[in-house]
Each structure stands twice: as structure tokens, then as C-alpha cells.
Design a protein that fits this description.
Oligomer: single chain
Strand content: 15-25%
CATH class of the largest domain: Alpha Beta
Largest sheet: 6 strands, mixed
Strand order of the largest sheet: 15-14-18-19-21-20
Helix content: 25-40%
Length: 488
């Protein structure tokens, strides 16, 4: 059932009215229309939902506070404005972090009801106009005045990873199976699909995709939703986390040729995403002997690893943004929200520190990504095998980006391209317990022995840039010198 259908909204209101009294995560009002107070309530209810272990909190207009009788309301939030601005936009500007609340208007018992559904605070307390609020019983208070609740809230943020937070709560077993692509779960794990529904649910719960809750119902956890959602848009706070693919005409972002917004969970939709990208990407025609053959512009393994990396290492605290793949005529950019947890120059040699370990672990289990610490190694190896320019890893604002470049002859590479390739080649040699030499670097670029002086100049540039150093500084031989990364 759609979560904006009249049936769903009527059922939700019925559940809320059946609560024995006003709780810290539900507030009933009749005609409150003070917009500043609404913002304060959103902050208080979001923080209280986290303390209460609820996925969402609710502010309802049109229900009596004491009796929970349906009274109706004249307040229509979708029509209200603040200084000519729609109140949803106005509230979003003043909330920090921005949370994806939603207003709903519908009829119950023939009377008008308005409601706002508020997701729980996830990684830090929600503020309104710079102030954090909390509910104490049925009262709205400033969080700073209740230090014990503030400490408990931060403890919850520290100990509850994103994957184990609730995406949707109190759904039936049949709704779980409608919301999650459970056949994909069993297919990826290569285990038989249980015949009975209870067996399917038990296995999903065992892998922390879902959990039981009161009344024989289920909570779908973020891990289950983000990996196996049949449609991520049905999990409102995860809808923007679907992978977006944009193809441009040329090398800039002025003309968009086509755009695709994914809708499936990452595990369920991964192979379809890679297949879509392969069909979109151009190929190169090369001549080998007397035959022409077509080869992909970018190695498929490199694409798979980089797409898996942006999925795994994204910062889910960054709202309104998700992984994105941008296809240009001569390059491929893959971006994830969030700054990396380590220096981009150390991506190749250092085991990655993942914000989302349960997500990473499952994707490794089903073979979507490589074992810990080997993914970027393979990306660099593949670009060298294809004799492509070295990949670029960069941080821009609050995002991390990996860039693959189409084939370019050494003569057409600029100095930065060459130095970056030299450094990553030295890193790749080092993690294979070897050292870079003039010979290995010539092989990497496909340069003949007679042009070794050209490569020597490149090595000198990389040393001057502080990215590589002599392996044995005491050796007098420069012709047979070997080099390692600066950190080795």
C-alpha cells in the first residue's frame, strides 16, 4: 500500500489515536498555526523519536489532545506561507541538519486532518533556528536544559550505526515482502528460497535486514531497505540515495543527453546498473595485426569497483544527495556524498575505513566488491593494463570523486597527468612488494627504451613534487635506480 494513499493515512491516524496518551513522539493539536512553533516541534519530535527508538514522529492537527477525538482543523500547511514563501521551504532553511519531513492533508470521519511526518534525528540533534528542542512528557523544552537527555541522545547516535536504524516500522510480514526484493537476497547469497513466508522473514531478520516489533509486526532496517528495496522512493528518507546516472554531450555539463534515476536497493539493482552503464559507454576501435576490434573505453572491473566504493563509503548524514555517475565524451566521474576518512593519496595502499561496515561487509559477501583494501589496487592495475591515464581521486566541497579518463597518448598527457600516473605506479609496485624503475614506468606508458630519458625527467618531476623517493638513497647508480612512494 502506498504510504500516501487514503487507506494508509487513515490507518496511520487510527494507530496514533489508539495510543493511551500523548507520547514524546506524537503531538496532537487543533488549529495551531504559529510557524515558529511548528519548527520547534519538528526539532523536539525528531530528537524525541531517536530517544524513543522510533523511525518517525508525528505532529497532527485536528485531533483533541486529551480524548484523541477527531475534531477537524482549519490549518492547511500546504497552503500556508511565511513572507510569501511556502512553509516547507522556510522550515527546511531553518532546520539543521535538514530532515525530510512531509506534510499530509486528508479527511477522517468527514473532517479535515493535517499531519507532518518527521524522521528521527540520525547523527546529531535537530536544531531549529540554532536551538535544539526535546519533548519532556507532553511538553516541548530546550534540550540544553536537560543534560541527561542530551547525553543519552548522543549515546544513541554513537552506538547505533546507520544500517541498524529503522527505515519503516510496524509493517506486516506481507508488507515486508512487498517492500523488499527478497528473491534477490537469496539469489545473491546462492541459497534456496524458503517455501514458507516465516522462513523468509526469519532469514532476513538473522541478517539484520529486518527486526521484530510488538504485535507480531516488523521493522525494516536501513540495511535491508538500502540493499534490497524494490523501490527506494517508498522509504522517503532513502529516496535520494538511489544511484543517479547522467550522460552529457561533450566534456561539460551544459547539454544533458539522458538521465537515469535508479530506484532499486544497491544489492538488488547493482548488476542492472553496471549493465546500463556498459550500454551507455562508448568503445574504442583498435587495430591488432590485420584485424580491427572494439574494446571498452574503460575496464569493466574498474567501473564495478568504483561504483561499489561510492555506495559503501558515502556519508548517509549528507541529506538530499546520493551516489552519482556522470558520463562525458572522454571521462567518467563517480561521486559520493561525504568527505573521505583518509587522504586521497593513500587510497591505494591503506585498508579503507568505512562509515558503513555492515553495508560493506554484505556487499563483500555477495561478491559485489572486492576484499577489504584491494579495490583501488585493481582500479589502478586495470588502467595501467589498458594504458589509460591514471585515475584521479579528489575531494570537492563535501563530496568525494573518482575520475576515469579515456585513452590518451603519453605525448598528449599534461604534467599533472604524468606525475599522478608515476606516483600511482610506484604505489602499485610497492603493495606488490616491488619497486618502480625507469623500465617498469616505460612499460606502464608503452614507451620504448630509446626514450628512457623522457621517463627519467618524469621521475625527477615526481621526486621534486614530493610524491616518490629513491628506494636506496646511498646507491650511486641512477640508470638502475628504483623508487617507492613518499610514505614507504
Amino acid at each position: 500500500m502506498r504510504n500516501d494513499s487514503p487507506e494508509y493515512l487513515a490507518g496511520l491516524l487510527r494507530e496514533l489515536r489508539q495510543l493511551p496518551k500523548e507520547t514524546e513522539w506524537v503531538e496532537f493539536k487543533c488549529n495551531i498555526a504559529n510557524l515558529e512553533e511548528i519548527g520547534e516541534y519538528i526539532s523536539a519530535l525528531a530528537n524525541s523519536a531517536a530517544l524513543s527508538g522510533k523511525a518517525n514522529a508525528y505532529l497532527v492537527w485536528g485531533v483533541a489532545d486529551e480524548t484523541h477525538d477527531v475534531m477537524g482543523t482549519s490549518f492547511r500547511p500546504t497552503q500556508a506561507k511565511k513572507g510569501g514563501e511556502e512553509i516547507e521551504n522556510w522550515l527546511l532553511r531553518l532546520l539543521s541538519p535538514r530532515i525530510h519531513f512531509r506534510f499530509m492533508e486528508f479527511a477522517a470521519d468527514g473532517k479535515q486532518i493535517s499531519m507532518v511526518e518527521i524522521p528521527r534525528a540520525a547523527h546529531q540533534p535537530v536544531q531549529f533556528q540554532g536551538v535544539e528542542y526535546i519533548r519532556v512528557g507532553s511538553y516541548k523544552k530546550r534540550l540544553k536544559d536537560y543534560p541527561e537527555k542530551e547525553r543519552e541522545l548522543w549515546r544513541i547516535f554513537d552506538v547505533t550505526p546507520f544500517e541498524q536504524q529503522v527505515a519503516t516500522e510496524r509493517v506486516s510480514g506481507s508488507e515486508v515482502l512487498a517492500l523488499l526484493d527478497y528473491p534477490a537476497y537469496f539469489r545473491l547469497l546462492d541459497v534456496p528460497l524458503p517455501e514458507a513466508r516465516d522462513g523468509i522473514l526469519a532469514r532476513l531478520a538473522e541478517d539484520h535486514m529486518i527486526e521484530t516489533c510488538q504485535g507480531g509486526q516488523w521493522n525494516i532496517l536501513n540495511l535491508g531497505a538500502i540493499l534490497f528495496a524494490s523501490d527506494l522512493s517508498r522509504f522517503r528518507h532513502l529516496a535520494r540515495k538511489a544511484v543517479r546516472v547522467v550522460e552529457y554531450d561533450g566534456e561539460g555539463r551544459v547539454r544533458t543527453k539522458r538521465e537515469h534515476q535508479g530506484h532499486m536497493g544497491y544489492a538488488a539493482g547493482f548488476e542492472g546498473l553496471i549493465g546500463f552503464l556498459k550500454g551507455m559507454l562508448p568503445a574504442n576501435e583498435v587495430i591488432g595485426g590485420a584485424l580491427r576490434k572494439t574494446v571498452p573505453m574503460y575496464p569493466e572491473l574498474a567501473i564495478r569497483e568504483l561504483v561499489a566504493n561510492v555506495i559503501i563509503h558515502q556519508d548517509f548524514r549528507v541529506t538530499g544527495a546520493g551516489p552519482m555517475v556522470e558520463v562525458f565524451d572522454r571521462r567518467l566521474e563517480i561521486t559520493n556524498p561525504g568527505r573521505p576518512l583518509m587522504d586521497t593519496r593513500r587510497f591505494l595502499d591503506t585498508p579503507p575505513q568505512s562509515r558503513n561496515e555492515a553495508l560493506a561487509s554484505f556487499l563483500r559477501r555477495v561478491g559485489i566488491c572486492e576484499e577489504r583494501g584491494s579495490g583501488v589496487d585493481k582500479v589502478v592495475f586495470q588502467t595501467e593494463l589498458y594504458q589509460l591515464p591514471a585515475p584521479l581521486f579528489e575531494v570537492e566541497g563535501g563530496h568525494t570523486r573518482a575520475v576515469l579518463f579515456a585513452h590518451k597518448p603519453f605525448a598528449e598527457m599534461d604534467k599533472a597527468d604524468r606525475i599522478r600516473a608515476c606516483y600511482l605506479h610506484a604505489c602499485l609496485q610497492y603493495v606488490q612488494r616491488k619497486q618502480m624503475t625507469n623500465s617498469t614506468l616505460r612499460d606502464r606508458f608503452g614507451i620504448e627504451e630509446k626514450n628512457r630519458a623522457q621517463v627519467s625527467r618524469l621521475i625527477s618531476d615526481a621526486v621534486e613534487a614530493g610524491l616518490i623517493r629513491l628506494y636506496n638513497p646511498e646507491s650511486d647508480s641512477r640508470r638502475f635506480a628504483s623508487y617507492v612512494p613518499y610514505w614507504a
